[in-house]
Amino acid sequence: MRVERLSILGLGLLGGSLGLAVKRALKGRTVIGYAHRPETLSAALERGVVDEGFEDPCAAVAGADLVVLCTPVLMLSPLLARIRGSLATGAIVTDVGSTKRSIVAEAEAILPAEVHFVGSHPMAGSEKRGIQFAKADLYEGAVCITTPTARTDVGALNQVEGFWRALGMRMTRLDPAVHDQLLADVSHLPHAVAGALVSMQEEPALALCGKGFLDITRIASGDGGLWRDILIDNRDSVRQSIARLIKQMQGLDSLLEAGDSEGVKRWLESAAARRNEMVERRS
Question: Which of 19, 66, 72, 192 has its CA at 20 to 30 Å from residue 240's CA atom?
Fold first, then answer.
């Protein structure tokens, strides 16, 4: 199936950037958008993000070959229930959610058998929010994770992965539960840590912070509602990640308590070596 009519539900940073990316990479497709705020739809039409815009998601998905859900994760299930009767037979539905276990399970339970769901998580984004920050190259070069299950239609999976590849993404597959465990470590916990680093500071210290502190806490500027949903939805995995981080910090605390200069150096050098290896693998 060639995607001719694409529906994007949610026109914030990710949804807006998706429309712009499709317009650049997949010319000739009709892009339909849904947003609950009229001003967002107006901005999307004005910027050429979408060809048509609707405040009703059911109208937005009518006749679509591919529907991409770009709303916060806890809004996805109610949205699926709302649009299920308006989806065309054979339509493919995917999403950009940062958690996958609950989304995939709910989608498979809600959607009719003649509609195919494939979980997706494009690892792209920013601490910025809103269609005004959308850009056509947001997805280019980034990793996109699909999370198929035993119920996933193979043809639909290939279509979705081909779609993301056409936008310049690198693909990998994970089980939904494994996805949530791994992303808790490398995405969800870091956001919480950035928030904690900012929250623990006294005003005199904040007045002295330099570029390093601003760099490491940049993601703390992200949307609180969106990240609340992610942390709540994946709370069991995030709590496991917090416990492992506490263990690391307790290990460092013990070295500092003992005045173990060589131990502290080894701890730091081990972390530096692991990060350097990670950077080399990505280059």
Answer: 72
pLDDT in tens, 183-219: 999 999 999 999 999 999 999 998 899 999 999 999 9
Element (H, E) at 172: strand 170-173
Rounded CA separation 241/232 (Å): 14
Identify which of 168, 177, 60 has the alpha carbon closest to the alpha carbon of residue 123.
168
The string over 250-259, giving b where at least 16 C-beta atoms fall within 10 Å of a residue's C-beta and e elsewhere, is: eeeeebeeee
3-state secondary structure of 88: coil
Residues 142 and 122: beta-carbon distance below 8 Å: yes
Which candidate, 141, 173, 178, 179, places its Cα nearest to that of 160?
173
Q: What is the 3-state secondary structure of 28-85? A: CCEEEEECCCHHHHHHHHHHCCCCEEECCHHHHHCCCCEEEECCCHHHHHHHHHHHHH
Distance CA 271, CA 265 (A): 10
Residue type, 230: I
Domains of the chain: 5-174 (3.40.50.720), 178-282 (1.10.3660.10)
Interstrand relation of 120-122 and 143-146 (parallel, antiparallel or unpaired): antiparallel
pTM: 0.91
Q: What is the DSSP string of 205-218?
A: HHTT--HHHHHHTG
Structural contact between residues 84 and 23, judged by C-beta atoms closer than 8 angstroms: no
